Automatic annotation (TrEMBL):
<feature type="binding site">
    <location>
        <position position="181"/>
    </location>
    <ligand>
        <name>substrate</name>
    </ligand>
</feature>
<feature type="binding site">
    <location>
        <position position="151"/>
    </location>
    <ligand>
        <name>NADP(+)</name>
    </ligand>
</feature>
<keyword id="KW-0119">Carbohydrate metabolism</keyword>
<dbReference type="InterPro" id="IPR036291">
    <property type="entry name" value="NAD(P)-bd_dom_sf"/>
</dbReference>
<dbReference type="Pfam" id="PF02781">
    <property type="entry name" value="G6PD_C"/>
</dbReference>
<feature type="domain" description="Glucose-6-phosphate dehydrogenase NAD-binding">
    <location>
        <begin position="12"/>
        <end position="190"/>
    </location>
</feature>
<feature type="domain" description="Glucose-6-phosphate dehydrogenase C-terminal">
    <location>
        <begin position="193"/>
        <end position="488"/>
    </location>
</feature>
<keyword id="KW-0560">Oxidoreductase</keyword>
<feature type="binding site">
    <location>
        <position position="343"/>
    </location>
    <ligand>
        <name>substrate</name>
    </ligand>
</feature>
<dbReference type="GO" id="GO:0009051">
    <property type="term" value="P:pentose-phosphate shunt, oxidative branch"/>
</dbReference>
<dbReference type="GO" id="GO:0006006">
    <property type="term" value="P:glucose metabolic process"/>
</dbReference>
<protein>
    <recommendedName>
        <fullName>Glucose-6-phosphate 1-dehydrogenase</fullName>
        <ecNumber>1.1.1.49</ecNumber>
    </recommendedName>
</protein>
<keyword id="KW-0313">Glucose metabolism</keyword>
<comment type="similarity">
    <text>Belongs to the glucose-6-phosphate dehydrogenase family.</text>
</comment>
<feature type="binding site">
    <location>
        <position position="49"/>
    </location>
    <ligand>
        <name>NADP(+)</name>
    </ligand>
</feature>
<dbReference type="InterPro" id="IPR022674">
    <property type="entry name" value="G6P_DH_NAD-bd"/>
</dbReference>
<feature type="binding site">
    <location>
        <position position="185"/>
    </location>
    <ligand>
        <name>substrate</name>
    </ligand>
</feature>
Amino acid sequence: MNSNDSSTSLIMIFGATGDLAKRKLYPSLYHLYKKGKLADHFAVIGTARRPWSHEEFRENIKDSIHSFVGADEQIDDFSSHFYYQPHDVTDSDSYIQLKTLAEELDTKYSLQGNRIFYLAMAPEFFGTIADHLKADGLTDTTGFKRLVIEKPFGHDLESAEQLNAQIRQSFPEEEIYRIDHYLGKAMVQNIEVIRFANAFFEPLWNNRYISNIQITSSEKLGVEERARYYETSGALRDMVQNHMLQMLALLAMEPPIRLTTDEIRSEKVKVFRALRPIEGNEVNEYFVRGQYGPGTIDKNEVVGYRDEMNVDPDSQTETFVAGKLMIDNFRWAGVPFYIRTGKRMTTKSTKIVIQFKDIPMNLYNNNEQLQPNLLVIHIQPDEGITLHLNAKKSGQNMQTNPVKLNFSNEGSNGINTPEAYEKLLYDCLHGDATNFTHWDEVALSWKFVDKISEVWEQTNSEIPKYASGTMGPEEAEKLIENDGFFWWNLNDLDVENCD
Ligand code: NAD
């Protein structure tokens, strides 16, 4: 086991019995442990309301590893580092007990007072927990302190500002790690490398050569058990404010002068500052919303959003958003960035399509229409890059044939490709905040999104519907067709459909 880069820290998970902890956090910690990135000097305290013992908690950790990882080598050693503390987030006594346990474990595992506080709980508790951590002395320690916060960070700019102000009473900005798990995805991290480590993309990466960029994140699933949260959020707040705008920033930013957290973040912030604000009447010109009706997914009939459990039968919540975003700077003036995200769509896929402009003159016009060059970045479930080119058809004549050069990340890294949460936990243990969102990014993206939700919330007309199993309402097609483009069909672009 290589313990050179193994981490020394106490990790406190608030919401330890929850879905996120079970499905993502424990499997990720286990992977890090197996790779020697968490060796002897780590301990985890799980807190939640249930009155579990340490042993019961460890059994649950083992169950989670069985279910989501499968393998269970070293599982007893691994789970022996886990401790449980029943907890009420609003009660100071709970934090005092937690502090006592933290200090015991600090000594037992020689943790040097390093502490990560991971808030895997409903967002209404984020501020309260941060207050108590400081007031009840848990941040009073000699080592590093890092607060990891799940999304959503606020509901709009105003609530995000309030939450931020509250948290900043206890933690300075550099100790706050706001999770956007898309930033942990291998191919999202690869956007930067593709752009800045290849001589032939960067010279073309501008309004002279790119005609438009399309970012789609579609799900087949409906709202499932998340209706209570989703009814107050909708796709705009759930997906666009964070994940979609983060991908856009990585695609559009200038090359940073160095690959440091501050330099990268400052380039991303400049993109958000250059985003053309869409407000008032323009909202309906630039943005389309939709809500899924009944339809067919994988040959099964599914109900519409309004018939889902815990959804208001007259709900106006959007389960789909498409938008056209303009970045008003030298590099991108005139290039539309189209985004599209929704539930109950035809396919589960996150892809970015960079469409290059047509060449100035088609010498092969007599034969076939030349296809535009595309660079497709496959984010999930496939991971890879495809480059769409035109080549000569075999035979005597000079006809062209579209060909695809394909790189599949799965093929090269196999099953060892770390999951997003594993990467983000590793970064946090090492104090690397590059792939977490800075407050300035959060604030600017809320400012942009708020202008759209304000208009939608004041609109009396019925929200456009789309049948489950389709790619959204007709209006989304018109949005892009009005500019002379069309959405690329994601299934056609799939890695397995590449030559
Ligand atoms: P969950 O409802 O499954 O779990 C919530 C946890 O909080 C439970 O352990 C519960 O016991 C604990 N809890 C609730 N009230 C408490 C109280 N008063 N005192 C002490 N403990 C209390 O939620 P989840 O799905 O795990 O989500 C947690 C956070 O992560 C949320 O902010 C969510 O938006 C975010 N998130 C979740 C996912 C996911 O895949 N589940 C994905 C992205 C973000």
